[in-house]
Design a protein that fits this description.
By secondary structure, the chain is mostly helical. Strand 5, helix 20 and strand 6 form a beta-alpha-beta unit.
Length: 912
């Protein structure tokens, strides 16, 4: 393609034309003309043509269901292609800068350069590298609206777009590429966008493994290589030791909070499935190595390698003869053949249920460590016999992969609600007559009772369980963790997360069950603080734990390290945008202080979602905006829903994202200012602002009786709850109240209606009320925005959310509610939006929202006319659905509405 032109516009135009061709082929000229007519009207409407909106409304109301389906699918398909083109534009820009020799910012190399500029000595940098432990954790939160079938097709399209961008093609090759792209678009058109059934947990596991297999497995050694090269270039003459510093975690198959489908059997199968994939990937790597390590015996091999081959021959006598005949004098190839054989046998063993096959067989690897020993033996032999280049090449990359992924592939976290543990402990202690009603005990009484039990050496649970099904399953879960450690090593499951932690007893209850099954010393017990109140109490909870001798002993066994998870989604839903952000910030400061006081090494686990209302926004900026001292080389962050595909589907973008993550962690770990260095005036202002914002939010969401009716009428929440995008129910408990609804569908519904309420509501009133007519206070807010990373990131995230919102479209959805309900809610939302917009502009000094991010501002402006038609059609169909008594018509309407949900999500690049 001609690099002198605007390549992204050219590529979008090319893809749009192909889609148009497919649309005419598949559905005919009339539908194509209708789509073009709607597109022209929405563009005119966005330019201020009032008559265009009336015409658009008339057309939308007159569409048959089949026409509505076709129009929505056309715009939804367009956005899938546009998103690919935008991703390729990012890749192109990164490659262009790399080829020009221009140093990239926000990379591992940039971090090492900056640390050197700050005067960090080699030994200090080594200490920082030793602490590096970065773990993105992939979750199955139901915010990824695309089916895996669609994702695979889009992956092939992305690869073909990259090819025509980077390879000089002959005319015939160009024609072939265009034909293949058009074929994929036609196939996309004929593929259902929405799932016909709810995915199972194991479906979600397979989706998760797609990214590990196709992207993340290959990126781990690249990150290592970049760090080694940066160290060699910037610290020449200094030797560094670098262990794996990025590992991948997963909740898929382990997160049972509110998901009854995550059973013991499902978790075991998840672990065995991950192991099987890891072994397949290693076998493929060994297969490729045959062509590299073909060195002749004439160059020599180590005595250790010869002894290893002799031992292998005793385990595989028939194969030994065959390998020696096939690879005469090629001892490295013979060794790799034995390695391959052992991997194959181990993979076959992974298919057997653990209870039926307790021990590994002699032909299998007992652990990933044994596999590593074989690889390092070859590496050592090569290094001693003129093969140093091969030793540090692809073989070293494979060693890095094994060190990173082991046989478990991704570390599986277990998560369960605190109520389940309290219930199990109550039944167990009741069985021994130690307490009549555990639930009636105060927190202090629970704390003392559990501490006494932790000191008691007798077993708590019998071999044969005869408690309630829920308690039996809770106990079996800890026994499964023990089996996982025996078969896969302690990194297979190393964290047990307690949802809705409110007190120290919630943690001690889990420690008691972990101790009873013998896994306490190999398991981080992780409190998850989610509501605003629990976040504010987190420091006191950890203080109670750290001063408890039995818990202190557990921490000692864990190397003096404590993981704490903080929840962004539920805290926002509970107290609103600003109050939640401030509570999270203050909680981190409190946790740093209490951990420092007790000599505990803190790792914060950030439960962030994709949207601003669930803690989203640029991850690297968020890390750099954390309180000083809260990032000390280690961090865990959830990667949820649609964010997983956005960040990890394309290997080039995945590498860039992981590089940014590493950069931010390295730099944040070297912040020199202390926790208490934030000016008191800023802290005081934020305390007052958060209180004002929370009051405004609670008045609308928790104090306005009309809000529930409005939310169910003016958003597609009922339809979203039926969208088959996750195995987990949309509600923790049955009920129609806001408190019963999970944070994800809560945010998803507001996003669809273009309100984005969780990403800004309450901010305008807080700023306007607090500063009022006081120019000094407005100046202080401007100073905070300029000089305080936390406040700047918070305001900029709200600014992004405000810009993506659209009160005109939101008013369209408001028309679905009864007039009385509508008037109780929407004017408050609209007025608060205006206050937030004006206040943000005054603080930032901008003329329009996102004037400081003009590329994003332009992208939103260009996307709006293509998203609008799907919103208009969705509203029209929701109105029809809520007035029909015909079940067949209702089902047909629901199908098109769900397609529009997918399309709007693709257009906004956000769900929940």
């Amino acid at each position: 393609m001609d690099n002198s032109q605007d390549l992204i516009s050219q590529q979008i135009h090319l893809l749009g034309n192909m889609l148009g061709e497919v649309l005419i082929e598949q559905e005919g000229q009339p539908l194509f003309d209708r789509v073009e007519e709607v597109r022209a009207l929405t563009k005119a409407m966005r330019l201020g043509d009032e008559s265009a909106e009336a015409s658009l409304q008339q057309i939308v109301e007159s569409l048959s269901l089949s026409e509505a389906y076709g129009v929505v699918k056309a715009f939804a398909s367009y956005f899938q292609l546009v998103n690919l083109a935008e991703e390729q534009a990012r890749v192109r820009a990164l490659r262009s800068r790399a080829q020009s020799g221009e140093p990239l910012n926000e990379t591992i190399t940039a971090a090492v350069t900056e640390l050197s500029r700050r005067g960090l000595a080699a030994d200090q940098l080594q200490a920082l590298i030793d602490r590096l432990a970065i773990m993105p954790v992939i979750t199955a939160h139901p915010t990824e609206a695309k089916r895996r079938t669609i994702m695979v097709k889009l992956g092939r399209l992305a690869a073909k777009l990259h090819e025509i961008d980077t390879v000089t093609l002959t005319p015939d090759e160009w024609a072939d590429a265009i034909d293949l792209i058009t074929e994929e678009i036609a196939s996309l058109w004929q593929t259902e966008e929405t799932r016909t059934r709810q995915p199972t947990v194991l479906d979600e596991v397979r989706n998760n493994l797609y990214y590990l297999e196709h992207t993340l497995f290959e990126l781990a050694p690249r990150l290592h290589v970049e760090l080694h090269r940066a160290l060699a270039a910037i610290y020449p003459g200094d030797a560094f030791q670098v262990a794996p510093f990025v590992r991948i975690g997963s909740w898929v198959g382990g997160d049972r909070d509110g998901n009854p489908f995550v059973s013991i059997a499902v978790t075991e199968e998840t672990l065995r499935t991950q192991k099987a994939l890891a072994l397949r990937l290693y076998r493929a790597a060994i297969d490729r190595m045959y062509g590299v390590l073909s060195s002749s015996e004439r160059f020599g091999v180590s005595d250790g390698l010869r002894a290893s081959l002799a031992a292998d021959a005793m385990r595989f006598p028939a194969e030994a003869v065959r390998f020696e005949q096939r690879y005469p004098g090629q001892l490295y190839r013979q060794k790799m053949a034995f390695i391959y054989q052992k991997l194959l046998a181990t993979e076959e063993g992974a298919a057997r249920p653990w209870r039926a096959d307790r021990l590994s067989r002699p032909t299998e690897y007992g652990s990933a460590g044994e596999f590593l020993d074989d690889l390092r033996l070859m590496q050592s032999s090569l290094a001693q016999h003129r093969g140093a280049r091969m030793a540090r090449g692809r073989l070293q990359r494979l060693i890095t992969q094994v060190e990173t992924f082991g046989f478990h592939l991704a570390t599986l976290d277990i998560r369960q609600h605190s109520e389940r543990h309290a219930s199990a402990v109550a039944e167990l202690l009741g069985r021994y007559g130690l307490v009549a009603t555990y639930s009636d005990l105060s927190e202090h009484q629970r704390h003392d009772l559990l501490t006494a039990e932790l000191y008691n050496p007798r077993p708590l649970t019998p071999a044969r369980l005869d408690f309630s099904p829920e308690t039996n399953e809770t106990i079996e879960l800890f026994r499964l963790i023990r089996r996982a450690h025996e078969r896969l090593g302690p990194r297979a499951i190393d964290s047990y997360i307690i949802s809705m932690t409110a007190g120290a007893s919630d943690v001690l209850a889990v420690l008691l069950m972990a101790q009873d099954t013998g896994v306490a010393d190999q398991l981080d017990i992780v409190p998850l603080f989610e509501t605003v109140r629990d976040l504010e109490n987190a420091g006191r909870v950890m203080e109670a734990l750290f001063t408890n001798p039995v818990y202190a002993a557990h921490l000692l066994a864990r190397g003096g390290r404590q993981q704490v998870m903080i929840g962004y989604s539920d805290s926002n839903k509970d107290g609103g945008f600003l109050a939640a952000n401030w509570a999270l910030h203050r909680t981190q400061r409190a946790l740093v202080e209490v951990c420092d006081r007790h000599g505990v090494w803190l790792t914060l686990f950030h439960g962030r979602g994709g949207t601003i209302g669930r803690g989203g926004g640029p991850t690297n900026e968020a890390i750099l905006a954390q309180p000083a001292g809260s990032v000390r080389g280690s961090v865990k962050i959830t990667e949820q829903g649609e964010v997983v595909a956005d960040r990890f589907a394309n290997p080039h973008i995945a590498y860039r994202y992981l590089g940014q993550l590493c950069n931010a962690v390295m730099l944040a770990s070297h912040q020199s200012d202390g926790v208490g260095s934030t000016p008191r005036a800023w802290m005081s202002a934020m305390n007052e602002l958060a209180g004002l914002a929370e009051q405004m939010y609670r008045e609308l969401v928790h104090g306005n009786p009309a809000l529930v009716a409005y939310f169910h009428a003016a958003t597609p929440i009922a339809e979203i709850s039926q969208l088959n995008i996750g195995s987990r129910p949309a509600r923790r408990k049955a009920g129609q109240q806001i408190r019963d609804l999970r944070a994800i569908p809560w945010v998803f519904a507001w996003t669809q209606t273009r309100v984005n309420l969780p990403g800004w509501f309450g901010l305008g009133t807080a700023l306007e009320t607090w500063a009022s007519d006081d120019s000094g206070r407005w100046a202080l807010l401007a100073e905070m925005y300029r000089d305080w990373a936390f406040f700047r990131t918070t305001v900029d995230n709200a600014q992004m959310s405000l810009r993506k919102a659209d009160m005109h479209i939101a008013q369209l959805y408001a028309s679905l509610a009864d007039e009385k309900v509508r008037e109780e809610v929407f004017p408050r939302i609209s007025a608060e939006y205006a206050r937030a917009e004006q206040s943000v502009l005054r603080i930032t000094g901008l003329g329009e929202l996102l004037d400081n991010e003009q590329w994003l501002q332009k992208a939103i402006r260009l996307r709006n006319p293509y998203v609008d038609p799907m919103n208009y059609i969705q509203v029209a169909l929701l109105r029809r659905l809520r007035h029909t008594d015909d079940p067949d018509e209702a089902e047909a309407l629901r199908s098109v509405i769900l397609l529009s949900v997918n399309g709007i999500a693709a257009g906004l690049r956000n769900t929940g």
